[in-house]
Amino acid sequence: MSFLFSAFKRSREVNSTDWDSKMGFWAPLVLSHSRRQGVVRLRLRDLQEAFQRKGSVPLGLATVLQDLLRRGELQRESDFMASVDSSWISWGVGVFLLKPLKWTLSNMLGDHKVPAEEVLVAVELLKEKAEEVYRLYQNSPLSSHPVVALSELSTLCAGSCPDERTFYLVLLQLQKEKRVTVLEQNGEKIVKFARGPHAKVSPVNDVDVGVYQLMQSEQLLSRKVESLSQEAERYKEEARRACRAGKKQLALRSLKAKQRTEKRIEALHAKLDTVQGILDRIYASQTDQMVFNAYQAGVGALKLSMKDVTVEKAESLVDQIQELCDTQDEVSQTLAGGVTNGLDFDSEELEKELDILLQDTTKEPSDLPYNPQETFYINSVPNTRISDAELEAELEKLSLSEGGLVPSRKSPKRQLEPTL
């Protein structure tokens, strides 16, 4: 740890390994610390306090910041604001910081040390914060129109930008990316956003100013109607209390005041409806314009894609495909015929030969030699086949006795035992 808290050598050539190892540790740590804190502005003094351990302060942080400035990862706040048109920023808000005279003299004399109080901007973190603010605006109700009051946008971004200076730096970054433009109108600053994430913002024109004024009028009328509604309710309550107290004249005056207030509310409602109707038509026309542009782009793309496609070419191509398919079918039929090698078979003769073979299989002669003992054995086996009539006759000859069924005598018609 003492090695990391020690100062850098005067030159990297003295010990490049020592220099690179400490720079590789502190440079990413400074940027990651700022990202975790959600800040884009950093000072040497703040970093020394943040990284202080047991009373020890890192002695090489100034060298680390100088190296980050040299690589373009950090930029002086004053230099960044001077690189963008920041004429709309008020001097009274304390955002544009003038470099003290000693800083200017040190730069002129060639001393590039970073003063402890000088504000530096993390370029990459500022780009990330600008993208976050742009997404926040796109997902808010303010995105219904590209022009919004700077005060309303500041309120919307209060959770993302920790202070006013960061908010102005973010706007300058968006202005540098040509995604917003800032204009002062009648003492009030308004911001115009680009219509798409990849589109460039156009200058504020009379239409934008007119729509913005209509939106402000709508908000003013809405607040006035709400205030008068509360006033009418208050007159009504006063009339009720006067009636309970028996003060009839006072109650009548309160009711008359209530009626006058309600008439004013009706008139304001009519004006508010007119303004809202105009705004609705403007929003609808903007949507129609977007759809028209999409149609126009689609037609252009379709024309470009079908530049060389005609009906005649399509018909010719279909005819060629059909001709090739017919040729392929003929080739397939020719190849399916096969090669017979000069042998032609008659199907009728083959069927006759098959019938002869089937007849021969029903008369399979025995190829074994004659055996007289086999004949004797066959003749000695009794014929066990008995007809149904003989079986019925045998059953009639059976009689029941007390001990069971007893056959009377053997039938002379059939000798069941073999005769030797």
Automatic annotation (TrEMBL):
Residues 218-245 form a coiled coil. GO terms for cellular component: cytoplasmic side of plasma membrane; ESCRT III complex; multivesicular body; nuclear envelope. Keywords: Coiled coil, Cytoplasm, Nucleus, Protein transport, Transport. Residues 400-420 are annotated as: Disordered. Residues 126-194 form the CHMP7 winged helix domain. InterPro entries: CHMP7_WHD (IPR057471), Snf7_fam (IPR005024). GO terms for biological process: late endosome to vacuole transport via multivesicular body sorting pathway; protein transport; vesicle budding from membrane. Gene3D superfamilies: 6.10.140.1230. It comes from the Eukaryota. Belongs to the SNF7 family. Interacts with CHMP4B, but not with VPS25. Interacts with LEMD2 (via C-terminus). ESCRT-III-like protein required to recruit the ESCRT-III complex to the nuclear envelope (NE) during late anaphase. Together with SPAST, the ESCRT-III complex promotes NE sealing and mitotic spindle disassembly during late anaphase. Recruited to the reforming NE during anaphase by LEMD2. Plays a role in the endosomal sorting pathway. This is Charged multivesicular body protein 7. It comes from Bos mutus grunniens (Wild yak). The lineage of its organism: Eukaryota, Metazoa, Chordata, Craniata, Vertebrata.
